[in-house]
Design brief:
Elements (H helix, E strand, L loop, with lengths): L4 E2 L1 H16 L9 H11 L2 E12 L4 H11 L1 H8 L4 E8 L4 E11 L2 E2 L2 E2 L7 E3 L1
Parallel strand pairs: 1-3, 2-7
Antiparallel strand pairs: 2-4, 3-4, 5-6
């Protein structure tokens, strides 16, 4: 499995959602995932996308705790080990000390001869 490439634009979108959850403007859920991925698709056309979320408080290493939790969850682990080539990570902390973590996984469309090839039948979203 090749390593994921961290993408700054995807990370920006993930960070925006973490900030919305931390501020209370969005609930801690996958609700609205289609809208978030639509924003990503405007930047990077993709074949497949997935999202992992975590909410942690009171840990020295909230990122480590999030990843350890995701690896214990079959659905989250499937995203981590899935056929994706790009990722974006966003973290936000609120005044209560709660950390909201969002990770997007993207399998981008490949470009051939200057055109983006679409694969609508292969497109899926998991969360």
């Amino acid at each position: 499995m090749p390593p994921l490439r961290l993408d700054a634009q995807i990370s920006h979108e993930a960070r925006l959602y973490s900030q919305q959850m931390a501020s209370g403007k969005a609930t801690f859920s996958h609700k609205g995932i289609e809208k978030r991925f639509k924003k990503v698709e405007q930047i990077i056309p993709y074949r497949k996308a997935a999202e992992n979320l975590a909410l942690n408080k009171g840990y020295q290493e909230p990122g480590t705790i999030a990843v350890e939790g995701w690896l214990k969850s079959p659905g989250h682990r499937k995203n981590i080990e899935g056929q994706f080539n790009l990722t974006g990570i966003g973290v936000a902390k609120n005044l209560k000390g709660e950390y909201y973590l969002t990770q997007f996984f993207i399998l981008e469309n490949k470009t051939f001869y200057g055109k983006t090839k679409r694969f609508p039948s292969l497109r899926s979203r998991s969360f």
